[in-house]
Allantoate amidohydrolase
Amino acid sequence: MPSSRAFEDMWRDLAPVGRSASSGGYFRQPWASAETELRAWFAEACASRGLTVETDGIGNQVAWWEPSTPSDVPGVLTGSHLDSVLDGGAYDGPLGVVSALAAVDVLRDRGFEPSRPLGLGVFVEEEGSRFGRACLGSRLVTGATTWDEARELRDRDGVFLADAVADAGLDPSAGLLSVDRVGTFVELHVEQGRDLVDREVAVGLASEIWPHGRWRFDFAGQANHAGTTRMEDRRDPMLTCAMTVLAANKQARLAGQRATFGRLAVEPNGTNAVPSRVTAWLDARASSDDGLATMVAEISRQADDRAGRDGTSLVVTPESVSGSVGFDPDLAARLARLGDWPVVPTQAGHDAGILSDAGIPTAMLFVRNPTGVSHSPDEHAETADCLAGVDALADVLAELAGAPA
Protein backbone atom coordinates (compact mmCIF):
# COMPACT_ATOMS: atom_id res chain seq x y z
CA MET A 1 0.00 0.00 0.00
CA PRO A 2 1.38 3.47 -0.86
CA SER A 3 2.69 5.81 1.78
CA SER A 4 -0.21 7.82 3.13
CA ARG A 5 1.78 11.02 3.55
CA ALA A 6 1.73 12.23 -0.08
CA PHE A 7 -1.95 11.43 -0.45
CA GLU A 8 -2.92 13.04 2.84
CA ASP A 9 -0.79 16.11 2.12
CA MET A 10 -2.57 16.64 -1.19
CA TRP A 11 -5.95 16.05 0.42
CA ARG A 12 -5.16 18.58 3.14
CA ASP A 13 -4.19 21.14 0.49
CA LEU A 14 -7.55 20.76 -1.23
CA ALA A 15 -9.74 20.59 1.89
CA PRO A 16 -10.32 24.33 2.48
CA VAL A 17 -10.78 25.37 -1.15
CA GLY A 18 -14.40 26.33 -1.83
CA ARG A 19 -15.67 24.90 1.45
CA SER A 20 -18.69 26.44 3.17
CA ALA A 21 -18.06 27.38 6.80
CA SER A 22 -21.72 26.80 7.64
CA SER A 23 -22.50 23.46 5.99
CA GLY A 24 -19.06 21.96 5.46
CA GLY A 25 -20.01 21.34 1.83
CA TYR A 26 -18.20 22.54 -1.29
CA PHE A 27 -19.04 25.23 -3.84
CA ARG A 28 -16.49 24.67 -6.58
CA GLN A 29 -18.34 25.98 -9.61
CA PRO A 30 -16.53 26.04 -12.95
CA TRP A 31 -14.74 29.22 -14.01
CA ALA A 32 -15.22 30.72 -10.55
CA SER A 33 -12.50 31.44 -7.98
CA ALA A 34 -12.40 28.11 -6.12
CA GLU A 35 -12.24 25.99 -9.26
CA THR A 36 -9.61 28.32 -10.76
CA GLU A 37 -7.53 27.88 -7.61
CA LEU A 38 -7.84 24.09 -7.92
CA ARG A 39 -6.69 24.13 -11.53
CA ALA A 40 -3.61 26.11 -10.45
CA TRP A 41 -3.02 23.57 -7.68
CA PHE A 42 -3.14 20.72 -10.22
CA ALA A 43 -0.60 22.45 -12.46
CA GLU A 44 1.74 22.89 -9.48
CA ALA A 45 1.30 19.27 -8.37
CA CYS A 46 2.20 18.06 -11.86
CA ALA A 47 5.19 20.45 -12.08
CA SER A 48 6.54 19.08 -8.80
CA ARG A 49 6.58 15.68 -10.52
CA GLY A 50 8.39 16.99 -13.58
CA LEU A 51 5.24 17.03 -15.70
CA THR A 52 4.10 20.05 -17.70
CA VAL A 53 0.38 20.77 -17.83
CA GLU A 54 -1.33 21.81 -21.03
CA THR A 55 -4.48 23.87 -20.44
CA ASP A 56 -6.88 24.32 -23.32
CA GLY A 57 -9.09 27.28 -24.18
CA ILE A 58 -11.86 26.38 -21.70
CA GLY A 59 -9.75 25.04 -18.81
CA ASN A 60 -9.43 21.31 -19.49
CA GLN A 61 -5.96 20.15 -18.41
CA VAL A 62 -3.61 17.27 -19.20
CA ALA A 63 0.00 16.41 -18.37
CA TRP A 64 1.86 13.54 -20.05
CA TRP A 65 4.52 11.27 -18.60
CA GLU A 66 6.42 10.38 -21.74
CA PRO A 67 8.24 7.06 -22.23
CA SER A 68 12.03 7.26 -22.40
CA THR A 69 11.84 5.88 -25.93
CA PRO A 70 9.52 8.13 -27.97
CA SER A 71 6.36 6.35 -29.04
CA ASP A 72 3.53 7.36 -31.34
CA VAL A 73 1.26 4.70 -29.84
CA PRO A 74 -1.90 6.21 -28.27
CA GLY A 75 -1.46 6.76 -24.56
CA VAL A 76 -3.32 5.96 -21.36
CA LEU A 77 -5.16 8.84 -19.70
CA THR A 78 -6.39 8.90 -16.12
CA GLY A 79 -7.99 11.62 -14.03
CA SER A 80 -11.39 13.11 -13.23
CA HIS A 81 -12.75 16.58 -12.37
CA LEU A 82 -12.36 19.25 -9.68
CA ASP A 83 -15.70 21.06 -9.81
CA SER A 84 -18.54 20.20 -7.44
CA VAL A 85 -22.30 20.27 -7.20
CA LEU A 86 -23.75 23.03 -5.04
CA ASP A 87 -22.92 22.22 -1.40
CA GLY A 88 -21.30 18.97 -2.52
CA GLY A 89 -18.91 16.51 -0.98
CA ALA A 90 -15.13 16.49 -0.97
CA TYR A 91 -14.56 13.23 -2.85
CA ASP A 92 -16.66 13.38 -6.01
CA GLY A 93 -14.08 14.23 -8.66
CA PRO A 94 -11.05 15.34 -6.62
CA LEU A 95 -10.46 11.78 -5.34
CA GLY A 96 -9.78 10.68 -8.91
CA VAL A 97 -7.38 13.58 -9.53
CA VAL A 98 -5.43 13.16 -6.29
CA SER A 99 -5.33 9.38 -6.79
CA ALA A 100 -3.92 9.83 -10.30
CA LEU A 101 -1.08 11.95 -8.94
CA ALA A 102 -0.48 9.51 -6.08
CA ALA A 103 -0.49 6.57 -8.50
CA VAL A 104 2.32 8.20 -10.48
CA ASP A 105 4.28 8.46 -7.22
CA VAL A 106 3.66 4.75 -6.54
CA LEU A 107 4.74 3.74 -10.03
CA ARG A 108 7.94 5.74 -9.77
CA ASP A 109 8.66 4.23 -6.36
CA ARG A 110 8.30 0.83 -8.01
CA GLY A 111 10.81 1.83 -10.68
CA PHE A 112 8.16 1.66 -13.38
CA GLU A 113 8.81 3.24 -16.77
CA PRO A 114 5.91 3.61 -19.20
CA SER A 115 6.29 2.16 -22.68
CA ARG A 116 3.51 4.44 -23.92
CA PRO A 117 2.47 7.94 -22.84
CA LEU A 118 0.69 8.14 -19.49
CA GLY A 119 -1.48 11.21 -19.00
CA LEU A 120 -3.11 12.89 -16.00
CA GLY A 121 -6.20 14.91 -16.86
CA VAL A 122 -8.86 17.19 -15.42
CA PHE A 123 -12.11 17.98 -17.24
CA VAL A 124 -14.12 21.13 -16.47
CA GLU A 125 -17.84 21.42 -15.64
CA GLU A 126 -18.40 17.71 -15.10
CA GLU A 127 -21.27 18.24 -12.71
CA GLY A 128 -23.22 20.69 -14.84
CA SER A 129 -23.99 22.59 -11.64
CA ARG A 130 -23.46 26.02 -13.17
CA PHE A 131 -24.52 25.79 -16.81
CA GLY A 132 -26.79 22.76 -16.68
CA ARG A 133 -24.83 20.57 -19.09
CA ALA A 134 -23.16 17.64 -17.34
CA CYS A 135 -19.68 16.55 -18.50
CA LEU A 136 -19.41 19.68 -20.63
CA GLY A 137 -15.60 19.71 -20.79
CA SER A 138 -15.37 16.14 -22.05
CA ARG A 139 -18.36 16.65 -24.37
CA LEU A 140 -16.57 19.56 -26.02
CA VAL A 141 -13.22 17.81 -26.52
CA THR A 142 -14.92 14.71 -27.99
CA GLY A 143 -17.21 16.74 -30.23
CA ALA A 144 -20.40 15.56 -28.51
CA THR A 145 -21.20 19.26 -27.96
CA THR A 146 -19.99 22.17 -30.11
CA TRP A 147 -18.60 25.42 -28.80
CA ASP A 148 -21.16 27.38 -30.79
CA GLU A 149 -23.87 25.57 -28.84
CA ALA A 150 -22.12 25.70 -25.46
CA ARG A 151 -21.19 29.37 -25.55
CA GLU A 152 -24.89 30.34 -25.45
CA LEU A 153 -25.59 28.46 -22.22
CA ARG A 154 -26.43 30.69 -19.24
CA ASP A 155 -26.03 30.17 -15.52
CA ARG A 156 -28.63 31.06 -12.85
CA ASP A 157 -27.50 34.69 -12.88
CA GLY A 158 -27.86 34.97 -16.65
CA VAL A 159 -24.11 34.90 -17.36
CA PHE A 160 -23.24 33.40 -20.72
CA LEU A 161 -20.76 30.55 -20.62
CA ALA A 162 -18.56 32.35 -23.16
CA ASP A 163 -18.31 35.34 -20.80
CA ALA A 164 -17.58 33.15 -17.76
CA VAL A 165 -14.74 31.45 -19.62
CA ALA A 166 -13.30 34.81 -20.71
CA ASP A 167 -13.62 36.24 -17.18
CA ALA A 168 -11.56 33.27 -15.94
CA GLY A 169 -8.73 34.37 -18.23
CA LEU A 170 -9.25 31.64 -20.81
CA ASP A 171 -9.56 31.93 -24.58
CA PRO A 172 -11.59 29.28 -26.44
CA SER A 173 -10.05 30.39 -29.73
CA ALA A 174 -6.81 28.83 -28.47
CA GLY A 175 -8.44 25.46 -29.11
CA LEU A 176 -9.46 22.40 -27.13
CA LEU A 177 -7.51 19.38 -25.98
CA SER A 178 -7.29 16.62 -28.55
CA VAL A 179 -8.34 13.11 -27.61
CA ASP A 180 -6.49 11.67 -30.63
CA ARG A 181 -3.62 10.77 -28.34
CA VAL A 182 -5.84 8.88 -25.88
CA GLY A 183 -5.91 5.14 -26.50
CA THR A 184 -7.49 4.21 -23.15
CA PHE A 185 -9.13 6.22 -20.37
CA VAL A 186 -9.33 5.12 -16.74
CA GLU A 187 -11.24 7.16 -14.16
CA LEU A 188 -11.14 6.49 -10.42
CA HIS A 189 -14.15 7.78 -8.49
CA VAL A 190 -15.69 7.49 -5.06
CA GLU A 191 -18.65 5.13 -5.27
CA GLN A 192 -21.98 6.94 -5.19
CA GLY A 193 -23.96 4.14 -3.63
CA ARG A 194 -23.60 1.12 -1.34
CA ASP A 195 -22.69 -1.76 -3.64
CA LEU A 196 -19.10 -2.06 -2.38
CA VAL A 197 -20.24 -1.58 1.23
CA ASP A 198 -22.64 -4.50 0.88
CA ARG A 199 -19.91 -6.61 -0.75
CA GLU A 200 -17.43 -5.62 2.00
CA VAL A 201 -14.70 -4.71 -0.51
CA ALA A 202 -12.73 -1.47 -0.87
CA VAL A 203 -12.40 -1.29 -4.67
CA GLY A 204 -14.59 -2.21 -7.63
CA LEU A 205 -14.75 -1.79 -11.40
CA ALA A 206 -17.62 -0.32 -13.42
CA SER A 207 -19.59 -2.41 -15.88
CA GLU A 208 -21.95 0.29 -17.16
CA ILE A 209 -23.53 3.69 -16.61
CA TRP A 210 -27.30 3.86 -16.56
CA PRO A 211 -28.91 6.17 -19.13
CA HIS A 212 -29.85 9.47 -17.52
CA GLY A 213 -30.77 13.04 -18.22
CA ARG A 214 -32.23 16.37 -17.18
CA TRP A 215 -35.54 17.77 -18.37
CA ARG A 216 -36.90 21.28 -17.73
CA PHE A 217 -40.62 21.48 -16.92
CA ASP A 218 -42.06 24.98 -17.48
CA PHE A 219 -45.47 25.33 -15.81
CA ALA A 220 -47.34 28.57 -16.59
CA GLY A 221 -50.48 29.93 -14.96
CA GLN A 222 -51.85 33.26 -13.77
CA ALA A 223 -50.40 35.39 -11.00
CA ASN A 224 -53.00 36.52 -8.50
CA HIS A 225 -53.61 37.63 -4.94
CA ALA A 226 -53.17 34.86 -2.36
CA GLY A 227 -55.91 36.24 -0.16
CA THR A 228 -58.62 37.51 -2.45
CA THR A 229 -58.53 34.80 -5.14
CA ARG A 230 -60.91 31.92 -4.41
CA MET A 231 -59.33 28.48 -4.65
CA GLU A 232 -61.69 27.47 -7.48
CA ASP A 233 -60.75 30.59 -9.48
CA ARG A 234 -57.01 29.96 -9.48
CA ARG A 235 -54.74 28.90 -12.32
CA ASP A 236 -51.88 27.88 -10.06
CA PRO A 237 -48.84 26.28 -11.71
CA MET A 238 -47.47 25.29 -8.31
CA LEU A 239 -50.30 22.77 -7.95
CA THR A 240 -49.44 21.25 -11.33
CA CYS A 241 -45.79 21.12 -10.37
CA ALA A 242 -46.52 19.52 -6.99
CA MET A 243 -48.60 16.77 -8.59
CA THR A 244 -45.83 16.19 -11.14
CA VAL A 245 -43.25 15.74 -8.40
CA LEU A 246 -45.46 13.11 -6.75
CA ALA A 247 -46.10 11.41 -10.10
CA ALA A 248 -42.37 11.21 -10.79
CA ASN A 249 -41.75 9.61 -7.40
CA LYS A 250 -44.49 7.03 -7.99
CA GLN A 251 -43.39 6.15 -11.53
CA ALA A 252 -39.77 5.69 -10.46
CA ARG A 253 -40.73 3.50 -7.51
CA LEU A 254 -43.04 1.33 -9.61
CA ALA A 255 -40.34 0.78 -12.23
CA GLY A 256 -37.39 0.42 -9.85
CA GLN A 257 -35.74 3.45 -11.48
CA ARG A 258 -34.78 6.98 -10.32
CA ALA A 259 -36.61 10.30 -10.70
CA THR A 260 -35.85 13.49 -8.77
CA PHE A 261 -37.04 17.07 -8.85
CA GLY A 262 -34.25 18.85 -6.97
CA ARG A 263 -34.34 22.36 -8.40
CA LEU A 264 -37.20 24.85 -8.61
CA ALA A 265 -37.63 28.46 -9.77
CA VAL A 266 -40.83 30.36 -8.98
CA GLU A 267 -42.13 33.65 -10.38
CA PRO A 268 -42.85 36.12 -8.91
CA ASN A 269 -41.74 34.16 -5.83
CA GLY A 270 -43.88 36.11 -3.39
CA THR A 271 -45.36 34.72 -0.19
CA ASN A 272 -48.74 36.37 -0.76
CA ALA A 273 -49.02 35.74 -4.51
CA VAL A 274 -50.26 32.84 -6.59
CA PRO A 275 -47.31 32.10 -8.93
CA SER A 276 -47.45 32.93 -12.62
CA ARG A 277 -44.73 30.44 -13.53
CA VAL A 278 -42.90 27.51 -11.95
CA THR A 279 -39.87 25.94 -13.57
CA ALA A 280 -38.72 22.59 -12.26
CA TRP A 281 -35.89 20.35 -13.37
CA LEU A 282 -36.27 16.57 -13.49
CA ASP A 283 -33.26 14.29 -13.10
CA ALA A 284 -34.25 10.82 -14.34
CA ARG A 285 -32.22 7.60 -14.58
CA ALA A 286 -33.11 4.07 -15.60
CA SER A 287 -31.53 0.70 -16.26
CA SER A 288 -32.26 0.89 -20.00
CA ASP A 289 -32.78 3.54 -22.67
CA ASP A 290 -36.32 2.32 -23.30
CA GLY A 291 -37.06 2.33 -19.58
CA LEU A 292 -35.86 5.92 -19.26
CA ALA A 293 -37.89 7.11 -22.26
CA THR A 294 -41.03 5.34 -21.00
CA MET A 295 -40.74 6.77 -17.50
CA VAL A 296 -40.16 10.36 -18.63
CA ALA A 297 -42.99 10.10 -21.15
CA GLU A 298 -45.40 8.88 -18.46
CA ILE A 299 -44.38 11.62 -16.03
CA SER A 300 -44.85 14.21 -18.79
CA ARG A 301 -48.25 12.76 -19.74
CA GLN A 302 -49.52 12.91 -16.18
CA ALA A 303 -48.19 16.44 -15.78
CA ASP A 304 -49.91 17.55 -18.99
CA ASP A 305 -53.20 15.96 -17.89
CA ARG A 306 -53.02 17.76 -14.57
CA ALA A 307 -52.21 21.06 -16.29
CA GLY A 308 -55.45 20.70 -18.26
CA ARG A 309 -57.42 20.31 -15.03
CA ASP A 310 -55.61 23.20 -13.31
CA GLY A 311 -56.00 25.65 -16.19
CA THR A 312 -52.24 25.86 -16.56
CA SER A 313 -49.86 24.99 -19.37
CA LEU A 314 -46.73 22.87 -19.60
CA VAL A 315 -43.68 22.74 -21.85
CA VAL A 316 -41.10 19.96 -21.32
CA THR A 317 -37.59 20.52 -22.70
CA PRO A 318 -34.75 17.96 -22.58
CA GLU A 319 -31.57 19.78 -21.54
CA SER A 320 -28.93 17.08 -21.16
CA VAL A 321 -29.62 13.43 -21.97
CA SER A 322 -27.07 10.60 -22.07
CA GLY A 323 -27.78 7.10 -23.28
CA SER A 324 -26.64 3.91 -21.62
CA VAL A 325 -22.90 3.27 -21.58
CA GLY A 326 -21.48 -0.21 -21.46
CA PHE A 327 -17.78 -0.10 -20.64
CA ASP A 328 -15.44 -2.27 -22.68
CA PRO A 329 -16.15 -5.75 -21.21
CA ASP A 330 -12.83 -7.24 -22.35
CA LEU A 331 -10.94 -4.38 -20.71
CA ALA A 332 -12.97 -4.70 -17.50
CA ALA A 333 -12.36 -8.47 -17.39
CA ARG A 334 -8.64 -7.96 -17.98
CA LEU A 335 -8.37 -5.40 -15.20
CA ALA A 336 -10.59 -7.30 -12.75
CA ARG A 337 -8.04 -10.11 -12.70
CA LEU A 338 -5.40 -7.74 -11.33
CA GLY A 339 -7.16 -7.47 -7.97
CA ASP A 340 -10.13 -9.79 -8.10
CA TRP A 341 -12.33 -6.70 -8.01
CA PRO A 342 -16.10 -6.97 -8.47
CA VAL A 343 -17.58 -5.43 -11.62
CA VAL A 344 -20.66 -3.33 -10.77
CA PRO A 345 -23.00 -0.86 -12.54
CA THR A 346 -23.36 2.79 -11.63
CA GLN A 347 -26.32 5.11 -11.89
CA ALA A 348 -24.15 8.25 -11.88
CA GLY A 349 -22.85 10.01 -14.97
CA HIS A 350 -19.11 10.52 -15.51
CA ASP A 351 -16.63 11.89 -18.05
CA ALA A 352 -15.67 8.24 -18.57
CA GLY A 353 -19.06 7.69 -20.18
CA ILE A 354 -18.49 10.51 -22.67
CA LEU A 355 -15.07 9.19 -23.68
CA SER A 356 -16.49 5.68 -23.99
CA ASP A 357 -19.23 6.99 -26.29
CA ALA A 358 -16.49 8.60 -28.39
CA GLY A 359 -15.06 5.14 -29.06
CA ILE A 360 -12.20 5.23 -26.55
CA PRO A 361 -11.80 2.00 -24.52
CA THR A 362 -12.67 3.11 -21.01
CA ALA A 363 -12.69 1.68 -17.49
CA MET A 364 -13.67 3.02 -14.07
CA LEU A 365 -12.47 2.15 -10.59
CA PHE A 366 -14.69 2.83 -7.58
CA VAL A 367 -13.58 3.37 -3.99
CA ARG A 368 -15.95 2.34 -1.22
CA ASN A 369 -18.12 5.03 0.35
CA PRO A 370 -19.09 3.79 3.84
CA THR A 371 -22.51 5.48 3.94
CA GLY A 372 -23.24 5.56 0.21
CA VAL A 373 -24.07 9.27 0.56
CA SER A 374 -22.88 11.50 -2.28
CA HIS A 375 -23.54 15.01 -3.63
CA SER A 376 -23.65 16.02 0.02
CA PRO A 377 -21.25 17.26 2.71
CA ASP A 378 -21.62 13.76 4.25
CA GLU A 379 -19.86 12.12 1.30
CA HIS A 380 -16.85 10.20 2.61
CA ALA A 381 -14.24 7.53 2.02
CA GLU A 382 -11.84 6.11 4.59
CA THR A 383 -8.16 6.89 4.04
CA ALA A 384 -7.27 3.18 4.00
CA ASP A 385 -9.78 2.60 1.19
CA CYS A 386 -8.47 5.63 -0.72
CA LEU A 387 -4.94 4.23 -0.49
CA ALA A 388 -6.21 0.86 -1.68
CA GLY A 389 -7.71 2.73 -4.63
CA VAL A 390 -4.38 4.41 -5.37
CA ASP A 391 -2.67 1.01 -5.38
CA ALA A 392 -5.37 -0.42 -7.62
CA LEU A 393 -5.06 2.51 -10.05
CA ALA A 394 -1.27 2.12 -10.10
CA ASP A 395 -1.68 -1.58 -10.95
CA VAL A 396 -4.13 -0.73 -13.74
CA LEU A 397 -1.88 1.97 -15.20
CA ALA A 398 1.13 -0.34 -15.07
CA GLU A 399 -0.86 -3.00 -16.89
CA LEU A 400 -2.01 -0.61 -19.61
CA ALA A 401 0.93 1.79 -20.00
CA GLY A 402 3.56 -0.87 -19.44
CA ALA A 403 2.21 -3.17 -22.17
CA PRO A 404 4.56 -3.50 -25.15
CA ALA A 405 3.96 -0.78 -27.70
